[in-house]
Amino acid sequence: MELSLTSWLLNLFKKKRKAERKFESLPVKVLNDEHKGVTRDISASGVYFLTDKHYEIGSIMTMTIDLEYPPGTRMRCVGTIVRVEDRGSRVGVAVHMKAGESTIATVGPPDKMF
Questions:
Q1: What is the value of pTM for the model shown?
Q2: Residue 86 and residue 59 in contact, taking contact as beta carbons nearer than 8 Å
Q3: How far apart (Å, rounded) are the C-alpha atoms in residues 67 and 29?
Q4: What is the 3-state secondary structure (H, E, C) of the chain?
Q5: How far is CA 71 from CA 29, 45, 96, 108, in A?
Q6: Residue 9 dihedral angles phi and psi, to the nearest 5°
Q7: Model confidence over 18-54: pLDDT tens digits?
């Protein structure tokens, strides 16, 4: 079963404002280059995550985020990098998600999705 990212997040948070953020530490995998990271916060319109690689503002990024609920759910996101921040030994990356290009999959174990 697949849902649009916006629909799923709005339903999850029970909020009408698309800018509402949920502060969660969730595993991120950047599909462009196989780097990994962890989210700091996520909303219907974007995600901020920490990683060890520096990315360029304006670049298009495709990533997956493993969600805690429901178990075995992975979100596939496509977006544009809008901010990059040095955070000591890590790099903070803010991505604005493209409407209609993100999906949620709720079938199969996490390592078998996408």
A1: 0.74
A2: no
A3: 12
A4: CEEEHHHHHHHHHCCCCCCCCECCCCEEEECCCCCEEEEEEECCCEEEEEECCCCCCCCEEEEEEEECCCCCEEEEEEEEEEEEEEECCEEEEEEEECCCCCEEECCCCHHHCC
A5: 17, 22, 25, 10
A6: -65, -40
A7: 557 888 899 999 998 989 999 999 988 899 999 999 9
What CATH topology corresponds to 2-112? Thrombin, subunit H (2.40.10)
Which pLDDT tens digit goes with each residue over 49-85?
Answer: 999 999 999 999 999 999 887 778 888 889 999 999 9
- The token duo for 89 is 């030994």
For residue 57, give the amino acid letter.
I
Domain residue spans in the chain? 2-112
